[in-house]
Amino acid sequence: MLMDQIRLEHNIFRNLLTVILAGGRGERLYPLTKSRSKPAVPFGGIYRIIDFTLSNCLNSGLRRIKVLSQYMSHSLDRHLKEGWSIFCRDLDEYIDSVPPQQQFQETWYKGTADAIFQNIYLLELIHPGYVLILSGDHIYKMNYAEMINYHLEKNAELTVAAVEVESRLAAGMLGVLQVDTHGRIMDFEEKPATPKPSPYRSKYALVNMGIYVFNTEVLVRNVVADAKQDTTHDFGRDVIPAMIPKNRCYAFNFVDESGGNILYWRDIGTIENYYQANMDLLKPTPRFNLYDPDWPVRTYVGQYPPAKLIRTEPSTDGRKKLGRARNSIISPGCIIDGANVINSVISPGVYVGPDAVVEDSIIMHGTHIGAGCRVRCAVIDKNVRISPKRTVGHNHDEDIRFFELSESGLVLIPKEFSF
Amino acid sequence: MKRLLIVDDENNLRLLYKTEFEAEGYHVDTAGDAKEALSMFEREHYDLVILDIKMPGMDGIEALGKFLGRDNKLPVIINSAYDSYKDNFMSWAADSYVIKNSDLTELKQKVKESLGESMYEF
Q1: Residues A19, A68: contact at Cβ < 8 Å?
Q2: Rounded to an integer, what distance in angstroms lies between the CA atom of residue B45 and that of residue A266?
Q3: How far apart are the C-alpha atoms of A111 and A235, rounded to whole Å?
Q4: Can you tell me the distance from the alpha carbon of A220 to that of A364, in angstroms, rounded to the nearest whole number?
Q5: pTM score over 0.95
Q6: How is chain A split among helix, strand and coil, in percent rounded to 5?
Q7: Complex confidence, ipTM
Q8: For residues A362 and A278, is the Cβ–Cβ distance under 8 A?
C-alpha cells in the first residue's frame, strides 16, 4: 500500500510541471517594488517573499519549477541563482527563471492567464500531464502533494485551493468560492462586496488562494479561449468563472502545515499586509513558525559575521549605553551599538548607533541608523543612511516632507536614501 | 465582401485556393511565406487567415502567434498536409485545423463557420 502510494506520487511528480507566477508589478507595495519585483521583496529579516512558495515546493517534493518573471526581474533572478540553484538538471530537476520570451506574442503579460497563454510553447516543450500554478507572493506552509492527490481522487480537471477567511476581510478583496457537499465548485465571485458564507462557518468565506492544479489540455484550451476575448485575462476573474459550468472544478481545503486550529495564509498585497505578516513573526509562539524543523524555509543570506549587541564606551556624560533588543528578529551581521531595538525585524548588516531607539519597524539590509535617532512604525529599505539625531515616525509633518506614508501611517523610506 | 488572406509556399495551391474562394464570393489575397503575410496584414484588413504550417523561414505555428498578437479575435485556420501538429498545444490557438485535401469542402465549411456564416444562408 505504502509502496503503491510512493510509486503513484513518483509518477505524478514526473508528469507535473510547477509554474510560479512572479510577474506582478506590486504597485501597492511601492516603494519596496521601486527596483524589484514583488516576490523579491525582503521579508522576515533574511528571506524574500518567494522563498516561502519555493520552500513549499521543496518540502512537497516538487522539483520541476518554472518561475515566470517579468518586471524588474534582476534581483529575483540573482536570488534564485544564489539561493535556489539546488537541483540537478541531469535528473530533469530545475528551478528556472523565465522572463517573457515574446515567442508567441509581442507584449507584456496582460494577466495571470495571459502569462500561461504566452508560455504555451513551454507547455508544448515539456508536455506535462498536469500543471500546478502558484503565486510567488503568498506566505503560508502547504504540502502541494496532498492537493495533487485530491485532484486525482476527484478526477477533477481543475482544483482550486481554498481557505476560510473572515467575510469582513474577504469583502471586496478576494475571490469567493461556493462549493457543494462533494467539494465541487458551483460558483465563483471575484471580490464581491458581500461574500457568500463558507459551508463550514457562517461568518467566514471560502477564498481562492490562487493555487491551481490543471489537467494540461484543459488549461491550454481555456487560456486559448480566454486569449481570444476582451477580458482582463485573469484566472480568478475570467478563466475559472467560464470553466465552472463546463469543466469538473473542485475546491481543495487548505491544510496548514504549521498545525494548530487557525490557518495561516497571507497574500502580501499591500504595505499593511506586508508589515503585519512581518510583525506576526515576532509573537512568542507565532502562527507562522520559522523554527519548525519539519518545514524548513530556505533562502540565501550570504556571508556575514554574527550579530552583536554591545555596550558603548562611556561618553562625555559618563553613562555606559547598553545595546538591547526586545521582541525582535536580529539577523547576522547586525551591530546594535548601545541602542535599543523593540518589536522590530532587522535584516543582515544593519547598524544602529548609540542611544538610538528603533521600535515597531522593519529595517532592511545594510541600513545605517546614526546615534540618537528615534525611529518608529517605519519600513526602511536597503542601504539607507540616517544621520545622527533624526526622527522617523514621531513627527508627522516632518515625515511627509520627505517620505511617502502608508494608509495606516507607516513611514516608507526607499532604498539607498540618505538624510 | 469578406477578405481572406491565404498563406502557402506552394504556387499552384495558392492559385487553386484563390480561384476557388473567389468563386465563393470572397476577396482573396495570397502570400508565399509568413513574413510577407504579416507585412500584408499590417497594411490591409483581413477577416480570416488560412495558414500552412511547413513553410521555409517562419512556420505557420510561429506566424499564428504573431497574427493573434496583432488581433486576438482574428479567425485563423490551419491548413496543413500533416496531422502531426494537431497535438501541438500552440496549434490549439487556431480556430480549426484542416488536413490538406484536393476536395476543399471541409476547408470552405470551416471558413464559413469561423466567419459566422451558415452553409444554408442565402
Answers
A1: yes
A2: 48
A3: 8
A4: 41
A5: no
A6: 25, 25, 45
A7: 0.87
A8: yes
